Amino acid sequence: MSSLAFGQVGIALDWSGADEQEIGRDRKDGRTLVRINPEFYRPAEVELLIGDASKARDDLGWEPAVRLEEPRRADGRGRHAPQRGRLVVLMRVALTGADGFTGRFVADALAAKGVACIALSADLCDPAAVERAVDATDFDRVIHLAARAFVDMADWRAFYSVNQIGTFNLLDAVARRKPGARCVLASSAQVYGPGAQGLIDEQAATYPANHYAISKRAMELGAALWKDRLDIVVARPFNYTGVGQATQYLVPKLVDHFRRRAPVIELGNSWVKRDFGDVRSVAQAYAGLVLEADVPPVVNICTGTVSSIDEILAMLTTLSGHSVEVRTNPAFVRANDVPVLGGDATVLRGAVPGWAPRPLIDTLAWMYGLAAD
Questions:
Q1: Which among 15, 154, 280, 302 is least surrounded, fewest beta carbons within 10 Å?
Q2: pLDDT, position 77
Q3: Three-state SS for 30?
């Protein structure tokens, strides 16, 4: 069955070993793609079970329309030619930060694709603890989300110990446990720096300007030292939001004011335009980046569109029927703020066919409580 399934996407398997040691390798490059996992055994499994279709044939003249050997579209409506390099069959994806805001949605996105998501949790600053956790986890690929994220956090040392050194500890352990594994690392669009403007692509220069951004760029540079042992993909997400994000972030703060029918809100520059994504779309992007066969080494996760804070306020006014008075707080005003800053999603769309961002109005309706997940 495995040989048949892989054959439909142009991959020939060579088998070796016996019983629980049996493995299937890609004939072309020798990668291990199939192995036996005793956890999937059924206690009283029947070795051979075949249905007798003679009654259906004799009484109804029925014949199966498609043989198992014939490739089908994912929706079952017809044939398509096998395409090597698009479908990757994986057993398990290890996910750090699985209990965080983004991680919960990434786990759901992987489950929707039929992939087992295994939470990988350890003190990233402790190399021995990381190695124990990696050694105890059965996985094929990794999505690394765990990080110190809030930019204004006072303890700047934690950015480097977790985001940079912690990631190196993880990569070192994964390289020993699973050499050649795909590792998708969550970086940040903040590495492009405050001088960036317009819709930024992956070729733009990087000028990180705060400890969080510097730690992420340092992580990217250092991770390259493992590229001879791991398949490393750096994801640079732009702003995104959704249900469950803390109100210390801008969009949840805005939604919270409208839900409470607050009369006044204090903001900085409300005219600036930024790229605001939906965490559900971001999660689908991460799932695609870890599962697709051919992925560029650096990918922006963004919508490719921008909206101003004034426009978000107007959308929330329409959704809620409530208006708030906006007062400018000088403490929130950034000098020399970039008027327009967003991401170019061209590379992401090419790497993950079929991916598309959700409209911002849908995200706001979901956060406000007018739409189901």
A1: 154
A2: 41
A3: coil
Which residues of the chain carry a pLDDT beneath 70? 1, 4, 7-10, 38-50, 64-91, 150-153, 336-337, 371-373
Sequence-distant (≥ 6) Cβ neighbours of residue 107 within 8 angstroms = 95, 98, 117, 119
pLDDT in tens, 87-100: 444 469 999 999 99
Kindly state the helix (H) or strand (E) to which residue 118 belongs, with its residue range: strand 116-119
DSSP lists the bridge partners of residue 26 as 13
Which two three-digit tokens encode residue 281? 């779309």
Residue 363: both structure tokens together: 């995200």
Classify 354 in phi/psi space as left (phi over 0), alpha (psi -120 to 50) or beta.
left
pLDDT digits (tens, 9 = 90+) for 178-204: 999 999 999 999 999 887 888 999 999
- Please give the pLDDT value at position 75: 41
Buried b (16+ CB within 10 A) or exposed e, 70-88: eeeeeeeeeeeeeeeeebb
What CA–CA distances, in Å, run from 157 to 144, 166, 333? 20, 12, 26
CA distances from 294 to 73, 126, 141, 216, 361 (A): 21, 33, 14, 24, 32
φ, ψ of residue 19 to 5 degrees: the values are: 55, -130
Residue in the structure block whose two tokens are 């965080």:
100
CA distance 2 to 13: 8
Tell me the DSSP string of 257-312: HHHTT-SEEEES-SS-EE--EEHHHHHHHHHHHHHSSS--SEEEE--S--EEHHHH
